[in-house]
C-alpha cells in the first residue's frame, strides 16, 4: 500500500475545479498553457499557478518546444491515484478500520 501522505498530496493537488479540468484535458493530449487560458477562460497567471501546483505534485510534466512549454500527464502518478482510489473503494469492507476496533 502507498503512503497515505503521498495520496493526500496528490488528491489535494487535483481538488480544484480548474486543476481537475486541466487533468481532464491532458488525458486526451499534450497541451500548451495558452490552450488552458482559452479553454478555462482564466488569466495566464492563474493558469500558471494551477500548472505549478500540478507540477509540484508531479501529476503533470512540462517539456520545452521552442518558446512554448507543452504539458502532459505524469502517467505514473495518475495511475497511482487510480489504483489507490480503486483499492479504497473496493476493499473498504475488508480493510475497514472500524471493524478492527473492539469497544467491549
From TrEMBL:
Record domain HTH arsR-type: where: 1-93
UniProt xrefs under Gene3D superfamilies: Winged helix-like DNA-binding domain superfamily/Winged helix DNA-binding domain
Keywords: DNA-binding, Transcription, Transcription regulation
Record-linked CDD domains: HTH_ARSR
Molecular function via GO: DNA binding; DNA-binding transcription factor activity
Matches recorded under Pfam families: HTH_5
SUPFAM superfamilies recorded: Winged helix' DNA-binding domain (SSF46785)
Protein name in UniProt: ArsR family transcriptional regulator
Species the sequence originates in: Halanaerobium saccharolyticum
Amino acid at each position: 500500500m502507498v503512503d497515505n501522505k503521498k495520496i493526500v498530496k496528490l488528491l489535494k493537488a487535483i481538488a480544484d475545479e480548474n486543476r481537475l479540468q486541466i487533468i481532464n484535458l491532458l488525458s486526451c493530449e499534450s497541451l500548451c498553457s495558452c490552450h488552458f487560458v482559452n479553454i478555462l477562460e482564466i488569466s495566464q497567471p492563474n493558469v500558471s499557478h494551477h500548472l505549478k501546483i500540478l507540477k509540484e505534485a508531479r501529476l503533470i510534466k512540462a517539456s520545452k518546444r521552442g518558446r512554448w512549454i507543452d504539458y502532459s500527464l505524469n502517467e505514473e502518478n495518475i495511475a497511482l491515484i487510480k489504483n489507490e482510489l480503486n483499492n479504497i473503494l473496493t476493499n473498504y469492507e475488508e480493510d475497514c478500520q472500524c471493524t478492527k476496533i473492539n469497544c467491549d
